[in-house]
């Protein structure tokens, strides 16, 4: 169950990272509230995952999911660069996430 918590914590990290873009410096109430709720839920789920998963592994995977997801949203929604080298770097992060998952018993 810890891996499920961690996965959803990572998805919520994407939500709050992207949400920050729409808060306009925390001046827009609805995006700000949604971002704060997403942050709290993400950290809460990470905390639940940390009950059984190693700290370094869980944190690296949590931030990795958030990083990769945020970059993908940036490319698809915000028109950010899809340069081949950028995609290759994202691929390396994904390899690291998969590697940590495969090498972590739990």
Note down, in words, how this protein is organized:
The chain is mainly α and 106 residues long. It has one domain. The protein is 80% helix and 0% strand. Helix 1 packs across helix 3. The longest helix has 24 residues. The protein is flat. The model has no long low-confidence stretch (mean pLDDT 96). This is Guanidinium exporter. One of its GO terms (cellular component) is plasma membrane.
The tally of structural domains comes to: 1
Shape: flat
The number of helical segments is: 4
Beginning-to-end CA distance, first to last residue? 9 Å
- How many beta-strand runs? 0
Structural class: mainly alpha
Strand content: under 5%
Order of helices and strands: HHHH
* Gyration radius, rounded: 15 Å
Share of helical residues: over 70%
Q: Tell me the major beta sheet.
A: none
Low-confidence stretches: none
Mean pLDDT: 96
Pfam families: Multi_Drug_Res
Keywords: Cell membrane, Membrane, Transmembrane, Transmembrane helix, Transport
Organism: Vineibacter terrae
Subcellular location: Cell membrane
């Amino acid at each position: 169950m810890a891996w499920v918590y961690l996965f959803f914590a990572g998805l919520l990290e994407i939500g709050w990272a992207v949400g920050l873009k729409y808060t306009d410096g925390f001046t827009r109430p609805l995006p700000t509230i949604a971002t704060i709720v997403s942050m709290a839920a993400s950290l809460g789920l990470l905390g639940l995952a940390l009950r059984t998963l190693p700290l370094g592994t869980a944190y690296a995977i949590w931030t990795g999911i958030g990083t990769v997801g945020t970059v993908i949203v940036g490319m698809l929604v915000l028109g950010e660069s899809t340069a081949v080298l950028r995609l290759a770097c994202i691929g390396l992060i994904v390899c690291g996430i998969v590697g940590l998952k495969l090498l972590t018993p739990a």
